[in-house]
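Q: Here's a chain of 71 amino acids. Please give me its 3D structure as C-alpha coordinates.
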Amino acid sequence: MNRIQPNQASQTIQVMLQKKKFDAKKLFRMFFLFATNKNLHEEQKLEENSNQALNNKTKATNFFKNNFYQN
Protein backbone atom coordinates (compact mmCIF):
# COMPACT_ATOMS: atom_id res chain seq x y z
CA MET A 1 0.00 0.00 0.00
CA ASN A 2 1.47 3.34 -1.03
CA ARG A 3 2.00 6.00 1.56
CA ILE A 4 -0.48 8.81 1.03
CA GLN A 5 0.20 12.23 2.47
CA PRO A 6 -2.65 14.00 4.29
CA ASN A 7 -2.98 16.66 1.59
CA GLN A 8 -3.24 13.94 -1.09
CA ALA A 9 -5.97 12.18 0.87
CA SER A 10 -7.78 15.48 1.31
CA GLN A 11 -7.54 16.24 -2.43
CA THR A 12 -8.81 12.76 -3.33
CA ILE A 13 -11.78 13.23 -0.99
CA GLN A 14 -12.55 16.64 -2.51
CA VAL A 15 -12.41 15.27 -6.08
CA MET A 16 -14.72 12.39 -5.17
CA LEU A 17 -17.19 14.81 -3.59
CA GLN A 18 -17.06 17.22 -6.55
CA LYS A 19 -17.62 14.45 -9.10
CA LYS A 20 -20.30 12.93 -6.89
CA LYS A 21 -18.70 9.56 -7.55
CA PHE A 22 -18.46 7.69 -4.32
CA ASP A 23 -16.35 4.60 -4.03
CA ALA A 24 -17.24 3.88 -0.41
CA LYS A 25 -14.19 1.72 0.19
CA LYS A 26 -11.81 4.31 -1.25
CA LEU A 27 -13.58 7.19 0.48
CA PHE A 28 -13.35 5.46 3.86
CA ARG A 29 -9.67 4.66 3.23
CA MET A 30 -8.95 8.29 2.35
CA PHE A 31 -10.73 9.61 5.44
CA PHE A 32 -8.88 7.07 7.59
CA LEU A 33 -5.51 7.94 6.05
CA PHE A 34 -6.20 11.64 6.32
CA ALA A 35 -7.07 11.30 10.00
CA THR A 36 -4.20 8.99 10.93
CA ASN A 37 -1.36 10.18 8.69
CA LYS A 38 -1.72 13.74 9.87
CA ASN A 39 -0.57 12.86 13.37
CA LEU A 40 1.58 9.82 12.61
CA HIS A 41 4.74 11.77 11.80
CA GLU A 42 4.31 14.00 14.86
CA GLU A 43 3.82 10.96 17.11
CA GLN A 44 6.94 9.30 15.69
CA LYS A 45 8.98 12.46 16.30
CA LEU A 46 7.67 12.72 19.87
CA GLU A 47 8.51 9.08 20.51
CA GLU A 48 12.03 9.53 19.10
CA ASN A 49 12.56 12.66 21.20
CA SER A 50 11.22 10.89 24.28
CA ASN A 51 13.53 7.91 23.71
CA GLN A 52 16.48 10.25 23.15
CA ALA A 53 15.68 12.16 26.36
CA LEU A 54 15.47 8.89 28.29
CA ASN A 55 18.80 7.75 26.85
CA ASN A 56 20.39 11.08 27.78
CA LYS A 57 18.99 10.86 31.31
CA THR A 58 20.31 7.30 31.69
CA LYS A 59 23.75 8.31 30.40
CA ALA A 60 23.88 11.30 32.75
CA THR A 61 22.77 9.19 35.73
CA ASN A 62 25.36 6.53 34.95
CA PHE A 63 28.07 9.13 34.49
CA PHE A 64 27.19 10.72 37.84
CA LYS A 65 27.14 7.36 39.63
CA ASN A 66 30.42 6.21 38.09
CA ASN A 67 32.34 9.44 38.62
CA PHE A 68 30.95 11.20 41.66
CA TYR A 69 28.96 8.82 43.83
CA GLN A 70 31.01 6.82 46.30
CA ASN A 71 29.62 4.30 48.78
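Q: Can you summarize the key feature?
A: The chain has one domain: 6-67.
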